[in-house]
Amino acid sequence: MFTGIITDVGEIVAVEEKGSARHLTVACSYPADSLPLGASVCHMGVCLTVTSLQPGSNHTLITIDASGETLARTTLGDWRAGRKVNLERALRIGDELGGHIVTGHVDGVAEIVSRDDRDGTAWFVFRAPRELAKYIAEKGSVALDGTSLTVNGVKDDTFTVTMIPHTLAVTTWGEAKAGDRVNLEVDMMARYSARLAEAKAEGY
After folding, report:
1. Which whole number is the average pLDDT over 152-158?
2. Within 13 Å of residue 139, how many CA atoms lie on the same side as its CB?
3. Separation in Å, CA 146 to CA 56, 124, 163, 185, 195
4. Angstrom distance (rounded) from CA 72 to CA 22
5. What CA–CA distances, in Å, run from 71 to 19, 22, 185?
6. Could you give the CA distance from residue 147 to residue 184 in angstroms, rounded to a whole number?
7. 3-state secondary structure 111-175
8. In angstroms, rounded to a whole number, what is the distance separating the alpha carbons of residues 197 and 101?
9. Would you call 25 helix, strand, or coil by DSSP?
10. Where in the chain is the domain with CATH 2.40.30.20?
11. What integer pLDDT is reported at residue 20 of this predicted model?
């Protein structure tokens, strides 16, 4: 489980094809002795397992593996060396829950329709996959590239989000632009509420 509060921006330093899967090396600032093998780390909203660690003087190198299913359902298939990625370590009991409950299981890929910057704040319009749009509600929560965000408004399959200067500065969102594809995880409560309503309508 995660909260959608980004704690580091890492960088992809190597990508190795493994048949239908991929092996990636990521440089991060997490101390190596604080990150055990097998730990779950959220990369741009995707929960991935740390398979090796290599401490360095200024950073830690971690490796992760992504299956063909993950590559097909997220933006991970587009990642190349040099790409910056939002990172978050798994939530621990007793940690402050500053965002919302994020599972790291991406539902689909959304697209940035437009970005409008005003006084350091960015106003984004996103287009969600049509089958996921029903789960997105005004004033509800979404996770976009691993970042917990509040929905300002919804119209058909598009929705708007505002990002403050702090968010733009400490995540990859400062460089985001129209046309970019982003990982989308809808709010878990919205998903289950919709399923319960469907089941009731179907007579279950």
Report:
1. 97
2. 0
3. 26, 16, 14, 8, 24
4. 12
5. 12, 8, 15
6. 10
7. EEEEEEEECCEEEEEEECCHHHHCCCCCCCEEEECCEEEEEEEEECCEEEEEECHHHHHHCHHHH
8. 21
9. strand
10. 8-89, 108-198
11. 92
> What tens digit of pLDDT does each residue of 62-91 get?
999 999 999 999 999 999 999 999 999 998
Q: pLDDT band at 203, cuts 50/70/90? A: confident
Beta bridge partners of 150: 141
Q: In the chain, how many H helices and how many E strands?
A: 4, 13
Amino acid residing at 51: T
Instruction: Evaluate whether the domain defined by 8-89 bears CATH number 3.40.220.10.
Output: no
Task: Give, as one character, the DSSP assignment of residue 2.
Answer: B
Percent of the chain surpassing pLDDT 70? 99
Q: Tell me the whole-structure pTM to 2 decimals.
A: 0.92
Residue listed under structure tokens 């090796």: 52
Does the 108-198 domain belong in CATH 3.40.1440.60?
no
